[in-house]
Amino acid sequence: MKQILSLALIAVLFAACGQKQEAENTDAAAVMTVSQLLDSPEQYLGKQITLEGTVTHVCKHGGRRIHITELEPNVKIRIEAPEDMPSFARELEGSDVVVTAILRETRMDAADLDEWEAEVREGMERENHDHATPSATAEGGENEGHVEPQGLDAVNAKRAELKASGKPYLSTWYADAVSYKMKDGSSVPVAKEAPAEESANAEE
After folding, report:
1. Residue 126 and residue 132: Cα distance in Å, rounded?
2. Hey, what domains does the chain have and what are their CATH numbers?
3. Environment class of 68 (CB within 10 Å of its CB; exposed 0-12, middle 13-18, buried 19+)
4. CB 175: neighbour CB atoms within 10 A?
5. 127-154 residue pLDDT tens
6. Fewest beta carbons less than 10 Å away: which of 1, 99, 122, 183?
7. What's this model's pTM, rounded to 2 decimal places?
């Protein structure tokens, strides 16, 4: 009887170990690269995902967003920090991280492009009248660490992209962060508060 119980106990332990190993393998498989995600992002929309990549940009105006990039083949996605999450530290730039986040989508169609073009033309007329120099990109956002087409060039580039896509809209994919950690297991750097002078000049 004791032998039967011992064999049963061993069987239970082996089963538990197998389940643990399977869970660990499942967790490892759940971590994706950016290109793996963007190959078929629709299936993950609104769902929790785990991404690994290199931080190639940290928003200088408050640290509320970063870019996670897969360096080869150089594809990236924007990660936003929700209100209840501390800002991303600038020291993260250049680091490899693992981010858990919820995938989101914004869409741009022909009507949006028409509205964008009207705003650009209105701004150009105002600048010509005031002899002013524009201080922001055509989309009204910050320069995300690289040079993008601006003004009508940007609008026309998006029109060409929309036409080539064969779809009625263009998708932009980003994610709302849930948590993140350093890939090498080191401590996550803490964002420092911007000096008062820097905060006052954040829009310059």
Report:
1. 8
2. 30-107+170-199 (2.40.50.140), 109-165 (no CATH)
3. buried
4. 23
5. 887 655 444 444 444 444 454 568 899 9
6. 1
7. 0.68
